[in-house]
């Protein structure tokens, strides 16, 4: 078996976009699990994604009580032998790998957001760190983005960063 993941963060609907881009909806419909690393802004985004498939998500610093009452600050689950954690913020990029090794010693994959900057690295202890960027607010990046990945037999495979048109 394999589990296909859609990784998104920082959707900021309706502040940065009126609705989720079509590319996010299409990728969600193909995924076995939708992972959202916070800053949804509107609970309607969570509702929309839950209609498209199972969601593993957390609240971010821009999310209100409506989302905080439905989502944890840190989410943890295991799929296909891969221990996954999701958090919104990991702090500055300098020293991130060392900090996350200390904070998540029992995790294989950490998905995070906040910066809107895509990130893919492996810590000295083997923890894979993935930030999908933002599908609605590119900030200083050349394009809006999301990620896909596959979990299979204890491995994280096929991690791909996708550019997203804001429609």
From TrEMBL:
Pfam families, sorted:
Metallophos_2 (PF12850)
| E.C. code | 3.1.4.-
UniProt-listed SUPFAM superfamilies: Metallo-dependent phosphatases
GO terms for MF: hydrolase activity; metal ion binding
Task: Pinpoint the Calcineurin-like phosphoesterase domain residues.
Answer: 4-153
User: Protein transport: is it a keyword of this entry?
Assistant: no
Keyword annotations of the record: Metal-binding
Check the record and name the Gene3D superfamilies matching this protein. 3.60.21.10
**Cofactor(s) the protein requires to work:** a divalent metal cation
Similarity remark: Belongs to the metallophosphoesterase superfamily. YfcE family.
- The protein's name is Phosphoesterase
Species, as recorded: Microbacterium testaceum (Aureobacterium testaceum)
Q: What is the lineage of its organism?
A: Bacteria, Bacillati, Actinomycetota, Actinomycetes, Micrococcales
